[in-house]
């Protein structure tokens, strides 16, 4: 196996460690091992992000450091308690090891539903994974980290729902990481066939608040004709974590995909989300909530690609900033020449709770069709002093007043959740940010 020396960074993801990782996966399909080798070589060949790359504008590139991180060998002795809510089945990973799972109900197994750890899915459903794994290319800047994810990926899940099967309760995947300078590379693949309906909720959590972690996570979400897919990602990594998450959405004819990402943790956390509307009637709802405090940096890059006529998308990202935190939002709506009658909307709204915080917004349009309706915008505002005074005059502490005002700001998005139990769980997660 040849490799191009990585002259762009100091990294402990070495040729020797990759060879050891590959040897431990020798029982997996040959095509998967070859894909890993190709991804490793591509990772080595790609440079780290540069200031001249517009896709990394405003990012703190000096903060990206891959040195000193290792792959954990054992599960953590304990995992954090996560909010409880009704679910159909669950997979729990700790330090990249599967530590718990609940059985899929018999009726769903009989209908052909698959919910399995990625390694198991590769062994038992390899052709299905191969058909959809990284089916669409990455285009938002984190190509190097996505290749690293493929090279070292062993943690993740496959959710497959056959044609016409509708599942009311959500599936849950939990990823926890413990120990200083540990790294993880989760990859989740969701495939809904025609007219199927399902929800997946994914948690990404550190067990300690101060330990340094490195994360490169990827998910591929595929909704075929008439399918309804809901994806909720909840991220609460440690305050010293570098995290790169890439989210790929593909919606077929009359499919509807609802994605909501909640960002709470990390020293430097970048989230990329690309929705592709591939056939008439496809719709994507892209939502995000972020609470940034301390010196955290949250970097959000989005792309809404309308490749067919009569498609629609709606993006609403809301950020709350405290202390010296920074957020970056850069979003682009692309309407291809044949995508007439496109209806696309994009909005980034920032609520500043500190004079020292910084919010950067870069919304954009690239339209090649002439019969469309596309709008975009960004707003940045501070807490209304009258509202703050009103609450404090009634004995509410400034911290609790901020919490109440933040929930008022977020409720527009949280109210879009049709699952009341999930709504309550996310509310508790956000509340934990103010109590930490």
Report on this model:
With 436 residues, this protein is an alpha/beta fold. It folds into 2 domains: 15-279, no CATH class; 383-436, no CATH class. The protein has 9 helices and 20 strands. The protein has helices spanning 15-23, 30-45, 106-110, 118-124, 126-132, 143-152, 385-392, 398-414, 420-435; strands at 89-94, 97-101, 114-117, 155-161, 171-177, 182-184, 186-192, 197-206, 213-223, 228-236, 242-251, 256-263, 268-277, 283-292, 297-306, 312-321, 326-335, 343-352, 358-367, 373-382. The protein has a 10-stranded mixed β-sheet with strand order 2-1-5-8-10-12-14-16-18-20, covered by helices on one side. A hairpin with a 2-residue loop joins strand 1 and strand 2. Helix 2 runs antiparallel to helix 6, helix 4 (118-124) packs across helix 5 (126-132) and helix 8 runs antiparallel to helix 9. The N and C termini lie far apart (47 Å).
């Amino acid at each position: 196996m040849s490799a191009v020396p990585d002259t762009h960074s100091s990294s402990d993801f070495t040729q020797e460690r990759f060879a050891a990782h590959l040897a431990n996966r020798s029982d997996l399909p040959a095509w998967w091992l070859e894909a890993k080798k190709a991804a490793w070589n591509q990772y080595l060949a790609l440079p780290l992000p540069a200031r001249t790359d517009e896709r990394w504008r405003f990012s703190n590139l000096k903060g990206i450091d891959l040195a000193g991180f290792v792959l954990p060998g054992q599960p953590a002795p304990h995992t954090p308690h996560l909010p409880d809510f009704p679910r159909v089945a669950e997979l729990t990973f700790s330090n990249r090891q599967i530590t718990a799972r609940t059985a899929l109900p018999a009726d769903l197994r009989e209908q052909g539903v698959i919910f399995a750890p990625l390694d198991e899915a590769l062994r038992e459903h390899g052709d299905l994974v191969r058909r959809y794994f990284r089916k669409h290319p990455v285009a938002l800047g984190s190509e190097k980290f996505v290749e690293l994810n493929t090279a070292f990926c062993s943690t993740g899940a496959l959710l497959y729902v056959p044609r016409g099967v509708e599942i009311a309760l959500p599936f849950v995947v939990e990823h926890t990481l413990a120990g200083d300078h540990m790294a993880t590379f989760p990859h989740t693949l969701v495939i809904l066939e025609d007219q199927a309906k399902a929800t997946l909720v994914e948690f990404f959590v550190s067990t300690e608040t101060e330990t340094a972690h490195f994360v490169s996570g990827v998910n591929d979400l595929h909704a075929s004709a008439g399918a309804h897919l809901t994806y909720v990602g909840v991220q609460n990594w440690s305050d010293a974590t570098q995290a790169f998450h890439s989210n790929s959405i593909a919606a077929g004819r009359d499919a509807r995909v609802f994605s909501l990402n909640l960002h709470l943790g990390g020293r430097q956390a970048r989230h990329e989300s690309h929705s592709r509307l591939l056939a008439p009637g496809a719709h994507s709802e892209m939502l995000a909530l972020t609470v940034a405090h301390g010196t955290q940096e949250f970097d959000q890059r989005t792309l809404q690609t309308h490749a067919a006529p009569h498609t629609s998308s709606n993006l609403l990202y809301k950020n709350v900033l405290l202390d010296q935190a920074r957020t970056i939002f850069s979003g682009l709506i692309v309407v291809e020449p044949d995508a007439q009658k496109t209806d696309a909307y994009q909005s980034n709204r920032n609520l500043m709770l500190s004079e020292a915080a910084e919010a950067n917004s870069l919304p954009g349009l690239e339209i090649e069709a002439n019969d469309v309706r596309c709008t975009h915008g960004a707003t940045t505002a501070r807490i209304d002093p009258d509202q703050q005074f009103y609450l404090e005059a009634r004995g509410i502490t400034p911290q609790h007043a901020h919490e109440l005002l933040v929930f008022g700001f977020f409720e527009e998005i949280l109210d879009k959740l049709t699952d009341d139990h999930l709504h309550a769980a996310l509310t508790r997660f956000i509340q934990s940010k103010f109590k930490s």
